[in-house]
Amino acid sequence: MIHAQLAPRQTVLCADGPVKSGLTDRQLCDEATGWSRRATHSPFDAPAHGMPVNSRKDSPSTLRRVATPGSRAADPTVAPEHPPESGPTPPSRATRRRVGSLELAVAGITALLLAQRLTGGWTAPAWMQTWTTVFVAICVQALPFLLFGTVLSAAIAAFVPASFLQRALPRNPLLAVPVAGVAGVVLPGCECASVPVADRLIARGVAPAAALAFLLSSPAINPVVLAATAVAFRGHPEMVLARFLASLGTAVVMGLLWERFGRPEWLRPKVRRDVPPGSGRFAVFRATLEHDLLHAGGFLVIGGITAATLNVLVPRAVLKGAAGLPAVSVLVLALLAVVLAVCSEADAFVAASLSVFPPAARLAFMVVGPMVDTKLIALQAGTFGRAFAWRFSAATFLVAIAASALIGWWLL
Amino acid sequence: MRREVRAILLVLLGTALLRISLFSDSYLRYVRAALRPYLIATGAVLVLLGVASAIATVQALRADPDQAHAAADDHGGDHGHGHHGGPGIAWLLTLPVLAIVLIAPPALGSYTAQRSESTTVKPAGAQPTFPPLPAGDPLTMTLGSFDVRAVWDTAAPLRGRRVRLTGFVTAGKGGGWYLTRLTISCCAADALASKVEIRGAAANPAPPAGSWVEVIGTWLPDGKEAEPDTIPLLTAAQVTRIPEPKDPYE
């Protein structure tokens, strides 16, 4: 939403920018802002983003925020009503603030180094150490996959023409969704990698239903995860097949559900920059990667905090009571998958260890885990918006349980 | 978040990753050894990305100071996640950096193990078959494989064999103590405990909880029913305090 009221100012500032070395002022501006969010009403916004822009929703908030005293949009130096005056005044102020921010960062690093010396002899209480270990472990473990996903996403933004992706998938969504679901086989990562990639696919014009099917299927049915499942359930190849079928089935059903019932406004009406023709591909790649990585990384931290807290709080012994009741046990392990937020490449080992539970319940753990968990909900909320994340996660949770119960009853 | 700060944050995050993976072995407290090359690569890419970002910022400043000043105050990360006007979500990435640098959290240990059951997964098949135990006296085993053989191997090849096990000490039920080791399959969030109850004269007095010990002893069959949470017994002949191993997990 906020881009709606910020963009006029950026447009004003960019309009003053000179044309340099083959780059247009627009591209320079984009580059200088790192990742500009354009006005929803900007003439530069091509409608081919796969999502209709919800201007009805944005306009009132724009008005409200501009009128709010003290909000940035109402800052007199940047208010869009005074474009000519805003030119000469801000530089001195901006310079001052920029130096302040840098000094702050340097001071922060110095304080960090000092504090490190000081805390050398201090030992945190056991629960806090455990929490921190799990938190750091989740972040450290996920970062390579997140980087992989954002690099792929930035590469799609910079190097793959939108027309290619649109041609690659069938036009009919009834066909595109299963094709995209099966295409999940090719992304050998865990769920952290698939969120930025799916986001980018939507931005590049892939139908959201197909991109969402890909989002759900890729962390569950790629070869690395299936191989890990086969190792964890040695001697039970039917478990690998069951996981593949239940995960793919859930992804396709969710894609079709989105096609039938999904509303575009649930997805955040994000207005994006497409690759400007003829601009430096590497510059676009770098700016996209930096933005996506920092943004998704922040939400990964939220997910890590949630998962670490629940991980430390929920003793696994509590679960044992539910093991005897088949229907309850499926639900309990599905909830456990949401709570623990174990990476999809490792969840098979955890599922195998929950051997007091019936196979269908362990299947539910492996089907739900890569699609809905605390870390993933935070990532999705940050990427697609909260309105989307809770609806989509709740629906996926139910569909995944149904698929696991059905496939588990049939195969296991 | 401003561009310069973003560059610094990327470099900090990359440095923190390199610090635990390239310049020390402390990554083993959090993830499996197999992840090391990926951590090093990620750290290096993050540092390079931060440097590239800094260069781009300087270039933008040189090209047009006025524009860069004004535009540098951009709003990346502010779009619609409820932090309007507040700091970008990316600031949260300082938390893992701070945790790694300031707290340097230790490997999971007795606190976690105390709160989890011993988990010995039953191998596949109704009557699982095992290869014969390797030679060696004492035979060095992981706690996990000792537990599997003691609980599930009906041929009971451990009978009479001296074994050497390494783990840390957790308090047991009824005054005894357990030799314990945690297993991780991906990261510390999925840690599972394997425990062995240590009996015999050499087991007294119990070493302090959390300390690392090497135990040489013989399996003590107790005829208990095999369950995934069965804790086998070991008669210790020798208990030696050792420093924490480089990789604290199995």
TrEMBL record, chain A:
Membrane-spanning parts: 102-122, 134-162, 174-197, 209-233, 240-258, 293-314, 321-342, 348-368, 388-411
Q: Which domain of life is it from?
A: Bacteria
Is the keyword Cell inner membrane in the record?
no
Q: Name one Pfam family in it.
A: ArsP_1
Keywords on record: Cell membrane, Membrane, Transmembrane, Transmembrane helix
Region: Disordered; residue ranges are 38-97
Cell compartments where the protein resides: Cell membrane
Membrane topology term: Multi-pass membrane protein
Q: Which InterPro entries match?
A: DUF318 (IPR005524), UPF0718 (IPR052923)
Which family does the similarity line name?
Answer: Belongs to the UPF0718 family.
Indicate what this protein is called per its UniProt record: Permease
**What's the source species for this entry?**
Kitasatospora cystarginea
Automatic annotation (TrEMBL), chain B:
Which keywords does the record carry? Membrane, Transmembrane, Transmembrane helix
Which superkingdom heads the taxonomic lineage of this protein's source?
Bacteria
Which residue intervals define the domain DUF1980 in the entry? Answer: 159-249
Q: Where are the transmembrane segments?
A: 39-58, 89-108
Name of the protein this chain belongs to? TIGR03943 family protein
**Which organism encodes this protein?**
Kitasatospora cystarginea
